[in-house]
Amino acid sequence: MNLLQAAAVLIGSGVLSWVIVTLSIRLAHRLEVFDHPDGGRKTQARPIPKLGGLAVALAFTAVMLAGVLVTDRLGFVLGLGVLVPALAAAVIGFMDDRSHLNPYVRLVLQAGVGLLAWLLGTRIALSGNEVVDAILLILWIMVIINGTNLLDNSDGLAASTVLIMSVGAAIVAAIYGQALVSLMGIAMVGVSVGYLWHNWFPAKVYMGDAGAYFLGTLVAIMAVRLKPEGVPPAIGVLIVVLLVLLPLVDTTYVVIKRLRRGVHPFTAGRDHLSHVLQGQGLSVPLSVVTLQGISIVGVAAAVVLAYAYR
Q: Which of 34, 79, 117, 275 gives 122 a disulfide partner, CB atoms 3.0 to 4.6 angstroms apart?
């Protein structure tokens, strides 16, 4: 990978994402596909178009097919191993957006995404037992999908988190010479920037479950695809965890808080870290920026570790 190639992917994905998300807003108005305020959890002032997630998936897929996957046969196969599960997750998320799937059905389908990723070549090697490692991979993908989805509760929060995580993954991959993984991370940065142009407060579009599932799957698989050579296994795991620190922290906080209150963890509510900060008087943009401090610290630590053990 050279700087010209990286710049082309970054700019191309950003512009394409901006254009397609713009078109999705117009299409949502025409089809009347909106996220409506409900006076409780959804506090936006007006109905917001919610086809942004499908637009992001389309933009990333186009960039991958046009620029990243047309490298060589091996690159094409590896790229599809990431893209196909993410697209499957987007379809599940869109079904959830439209029909509000039963939480347990949703989890089974998400587990299917993890299994598909494993069948298409995404592997972890922690236990020495292939079945156990496959289960760990499936659980990991489910956690990151739901962690990303849970973060989609304030304007710009989920997309900015994905942006920062992708920057970190791209840098770590570059440190270890994984050009394809690094370019995927750069493409995700561009797509996130193009979407954030419309999603930053006050948001003009939402990504819905389709977008959160898609981006969460990409992040989960890309993190696992990082293969630092010569790094102790514990350090390798720590690098991956640090890259996705904010979704893990927020999900853990919400689950523990709900269980202590006797509330089912799958229950929707305004009890996330962003809501806590906003309840303390912070504006939506300031709460998002504050939480990104967690992401930045995690990503910076992951990059430092990767560089130290290169």
A: 117
